[in-house]
Amino acid sequence: MLKLSKLADYATVLMTLVAREPQRLHSGLELAERSRLPAPTVAKLLKSLARGGLLQSLRGAHGGYRLARAPEHISVADIIAALEGPIGVTECATHPGGCTLESGCSTRANWRLINVAIRQALEAVSLAQMAAPPPAARDGEFPLTFHRPQALASPQNPA
Length: 159
Prior knowledge:
It is a single chain. Helix content is about 45%, strand content about 5%. It is mainly alpha-helical and about 160 residues long. The chain has one domain (about 5-130): Arc Repressor Mutant, subunit A (Orthogonal Bundle), CATH 1.10.10.10. Strands 1-2 form a two-stranded antiparallel sheet. Helix 1 crosses helix 2 (about 30-35) and helix 1 crosses helix 4. It is globular. This is BadM/Rrf2 family transcriptional regulator. InterPro entries: SUF_FeS_clus_asmbl_reg, TR_Rrf2-type_CS, Tscrpt_reg_Rrf2, WH-like_DNA-bd_sf, WH_DNA-bd_sf. Pfam families: Rrf2. It comes from Sinimarinibacterium flocculans.
C-alpha cells in the first residue's frame, strides 16, 4: 500500500490552516488548537517546515509562523519533501545503487515512470487549492480529471 506518513499528513493540515490566512502570523499553540493535534507534534512539524523553506519563523512576543511564499507557489510535493525527503515509491527511484537486485531488475524503469507520475501529480496540487473549499462532488465523485501522457497512448489504448 502506498501511504503518506502521519507527520506528512499533519504537516499538510497545518500548512492548509496557515494558507487560509497567509498574511497573518500563526502561533504553534493556536495551530495545535485549530488542528486538534498535540502541541509537541505541531511544534516539531512547524520547525521542519521552516527548515524546509516553506514557513518563516518570527521570534518574540508577537512572533509566529507564516508562509515563506504564496500558497499558489507551494505544492503538496513540497510539503511532503520537507518532511520525508525525496518522493519515491521504491528505493531505486530516489537512491540508485541501494538495491542488490537493481542491475537485473526488469521493473525498475516502470517503477521510475510511476514515481515520476506520482511526483508530478503531487506537484500539480498547490497549497492554495488545498486551502480552498472543496469543489462540489457529484454522485460521490470528485471533479478531477487525469490525462494519460501521450507516450502511453496507443491504437489499442487511446488516451
